[in-house]
Specification:
Blueprint lengths: L1 E5 L8 E5 L16 E5 L24 E4 L2 E5 L2 E2 L2 E2 L4 E7 L5 E10 L10 E5 L8 E5 L9 E2 L4 E7 L8 E9 L2 E3 L3 E5 L12 E7 L4 E11 L10 E5 L8 E5 L7 E2 L4 E7 L8 E10 L4 E3 L3 E5 L12 E7 L4 E11 L12 E6 L11 E6 L8 E2 L4 E7 L8 E10 L6 E3 L3 E5 L12 E7 L7 E8 L10 E7 L4 E7 L5 E5 L7 E5 L7 E3 L4 E7 L8 E7 L5 E5 L20 E7 L7 E2 L16 E6 L6 E6 L8 E2 L4 E7 L9
């Protein structure tokens, strides 16, 4: 036998309660003047039945009552869009026994007072006035916060005094589904399980463990609406903390297999539509040890190779995902680094690889920052363009070392000033762009492309304080001797852009720019760029937006200043294999070009047909070879007959020295 009571005069009214056991129910109060009762019996056993008494109580329809079911609404009774004076309404909200109830206020307009002593709404975590107080609310400017109860019942009271009244409140209640789970093991279930789940639900379950742990998810019951490609009701599991991480599977027709995360987070999304519903799912989770790796969400922290500073184990792979909120970037700084040395060709046995996940979809090498690193030398500081960075450490089965330690920090991208980038494309902006850059600011950017590739700067916006000689704040671009990079510097006292080839302020001037006068494209001579921005305390402009692209291969460039210097890529470190660098030096008409070699250490051969440097009179196909050298030969001064000379540097696939 089943008894059912509804809050109204028809079978479509809200269900107040369902009864079937021998437990004596507590009294019910309707929200209005009607109650609808139904008794249903089947063909099996019978019992004594029930006896019910009812009575009328004074009240205003809609002022309080018993609210049951999976979801519903409550609001203050109003007259002429204002609630009545001297009201005292009590609602008891109850959802199915194995669920939790959530209350959300949609509108709220009550008389305000200190400590809400006049008109107020009171919410308690439980079924009666003695349950723990959640909060007492009044006023007109702020909605009370949503609240999820610890169980399946809530008590809500509305009280008004004899004076001021306003529009009142309206709120909705619903079954809470999903949640965040921190324990090492637990149970997940769909709403109302083992009864049918409700329509139109979106439930998010997040399992979080400590770094170095992984999550095992096993399903014990699974029955959902069948559909092609799980278009209607479905459950999807992600290997991370939200749906931006890789999916482990989307399920509706068949029970999921046992699922194991790679990291210490697992995100489960359960979605239902408005049609067919079914029993849903029941699953349990446990955690297992992975020795290393994990998803890191703190604003700053450290990562270490396993057992650091002791030697790391053989045959291990660790993956850390540093995940910051949108609008932040991640900067990684190496504290110590000791891995098995690379091979003669530069390949690594044990290695650390860092990925900028914001560029993984568009860039080559899956967003790889720089290259895999090994050996004893600290890798450079690394900065992402987006809010996610992945660090992967692998070791082989042979030699081990002390490993590495690195610190990370999440930084606000809108106020960030400077960074180190190893991606093949990206965007740099002055601080606060497109707003004016701030005074007394100093920023340094380093862009490093793979060996044998050049960097092209594309200037889409440039606006700085103007001056006929650019004698205020300025942005300076240099090719710095010894480092193969360009330096862009905003120098206090002068708003302009100055481009030089050389290692100091006396290096040949390529151009000096301010106002809006700047070339739209600037190419590096090798695979690194260095940009330095500094503003003084006076006027400022809109700043700049500069994108870079490092997909072009090669090195070299065109030099037009009266004097300067040329270095091979990566000097004084060993140059790259399979490089072809061409510099064209063009002086003013009527002048000659003189080149003096200060240092040279190139792979030697009798005919200089492996690695070599060659000097030509003129440029292009008609250029005439004047000198070719290799080894440690000291070239004499080479002088042209015209105002154009070409220097070409070529390397093969084998030995590389200082250059």
């Amino acid at each position: 036998m089943e008894g059912k009571v509804r809050d109204g005069y028809s079978e479509t009214a809200d269900v107040l309660q369902r009864y079937c056991s021998t437990t004596l129910p507590r009294p019910l109060t309707t929200s209005g003047p009607f109650a609808w009762l139904r008794l249903h019996t089947d063909q099996s056993s019978a019992d004594q039945g029930f006896h019910i008494t009812y009575s009328q109580i004074p009240g205003i329809p809609g002022c309080g009552g018993e609210l049951a079911g999976e979801q519903g609404t409550l609001s203050t009774p109003t007259h002429m869009q204002r609630y009545h004076h001297n009201m005292d309404c009590e609602w008891r909200i109850r959802v199915p026994g194995n669920e939790r109830v959530q209350l959300v206020f949609d509108s709220f307009e009550l008389e305000g007072s200190f400590n809400c002593i006049f008109d107020f709404v009171e919410v308690r975590d439980g079924p009666d006035p003695d349950s723990p107080l959640v909060g007492r609310y009044c006023g007109r400017n702020t909605l009370p916060p949503p609240f999820a109860a610890s169980g399946n019942e809530l008590y809500v009271r509305f009280y008004s005094d004899y004076s001021v009244s306003h529009g009142g409140f309206s709120a909705t209640y619903d079954v809470v589904c999903g949640g965040v789970f921190f324990s090492e093991s637990g149970v997940l279930r769909s709403p109302n399980f083992p009864e049918n789940y409700p329509h139109g639900k979106r439930c998010e379950y997040l399992i979080r463990q400590e770094p170095g742990r992984a999550i095992v998810l096993q399903f014990h019951d699974f029955l959902m609406e069948n559909s092609f490609a799980c278009f209607f009701d479905y459950l999807e599991v992600f290997d991370g903390r939200d749906s931006s991480f890789p999916s482990l599977g989307k399920f509706c027709n068949e029970p999921p297999p046992t699922l194991i995360s790679r990291h210490n987070y697992m995100y489960i999304l359960f979605v239902t539509d408005g049609s067919v519903h079914n029993r849903g799912f029941l699953a349990n989770f446990t955690s297992i040890d992975t020795e290393c790796g994990g998803i890191l969400v703190d604003q700053q922290g450290t990562i270490n190779s396993p057992t650091h500073p002791e030697q790391y184990p053989n045959g291990i792979t660790c993956s850390w995902v540093i995940h910051r909120p949108p609008g932040e970037i991640v900067r990684l700084t190496w504290l110590s680094f000791s891995l098995e040395a690379a091979t003669r060709t530069g390949s690594c046995y044990d290695s650390v690889s860092v990925y900028d996940n914001s560029t993984a979809a568009a860039g080559t090498n899956g967003g790889l920052i720089g290259r895999p690193y090994c050996g004893q030398r600290l890798p450079p500081i690394m900065t992402t363009l987006g809010n996610v960075m992945t660090v992967i450490f692998t070791s082989d089965t042979s030699i081990t070392h002390d490993g590495f330690a690195a610190s990370f920090i999440g930084l606000n991208a809108s106020t960030l000033c400077g960074g180190t980038y190893h991606t093949i494309s990206g965007v740099l902006t002055s601080p606060n762009f497109p707003g004016p850059y701030p005074p007394s600011k100093e920023c340094t950017w380093i862009i490093e492309a793979p060996q044998n590739q050049q960097i092209m700067l594309n200037v889409s916006h440039f606006g700085m304080e103007d001056h006929f000689e650019c004698n205020y704040d300025y942005l300076e671009i240099r090719l710095v001797s010894g480092c193969d990079y360009l330096e862009i510097r905003l120098v206090s006292g002068c708003d302009y852009l100055e481009i030089r080839n050389g290692g100091s302020a006396t290096a040949p001037l390529i151009g000096k720019y301010c106002g809006t006068n700047m070339p739209r494209q600037i190419s590096s001579h090798a695979h690194r760029l260095f940009l330095h921005f500094r503003s003084d305390g006076s006027l400022s402009g809109a700043g700049f937006r500069i994108s870079w692209d490092a997909t072009a291969t090669g090195c070299g460039g065109r030099l037009t200043g009266p004097r300067g210097s040329i270095i091979s890529p990566n000097y004084p470190q060993p140059y790259a294999h399979m490089a072809v660098c061409t510099w064209v030096i063009a002086g003013n008409a009527g002048n000659k070009v003189r080149i003096s070699f200060l240092d040279m250490d190139i792979e030697g051969s009798d005919t200089c047909n492996m690695d070599y440097v060659a000097v030509y009179e003129g440029a292009g196909p008609s250029a005439v070879l004047k000198k070719r050298a290799c080894g440690s030969d000291q070239l004499d001064v080479v002088e042209s007959k015209t105002n154009i000379m070409t220097v070409k540097f070529v390397t093969d696939f084998s030995t590389a020295t200082t250059s």
